[in-house]
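Bit of a strange request maybe. I'm writing a small parser for structure token strings and I need a real example to test against, not something I typed by hand. Could someone generate the tokens for this chain?
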Amino acid sequence: MSEKFYNTLVQSLRLVASPADIQIKSLPDFVCIADEIALTYDETYVLLPQIAEEDKRFTPQVMETLKELDRLFGEMSEDKTLWDIDQLKENLKWEKSRLLAYEALQLLGEPYEFPDLGYISYVRG
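Reply from user aminoacidic:
Good idea to test on real output. This should exercise your parser:
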């Protein structure tokens, strides 16, 4: 499970680290793009404490960066105006989330690449 989780985390970080145009292209047009970006990260972050203890890649510096990204998304969730496409493209908090995710990838020794979200199934509501 650890390697599968790790790969899922890396892909979620790649999604968050991506420029807005790539984030938009990476997700189906019927989802709320901004919400899905944060949720994709959150779904892996909540499992992190269970996995990180066993995986030496999760150094204290990596953990702090991931925690900071989680805190940022938590703060952002209190402001409903941040969750549309225009804000995703232009708001400094979204840019900060990209920088934190990119930093986490670098700390993990992972390159930035186009995110591969093939592990996620999206269903029209």
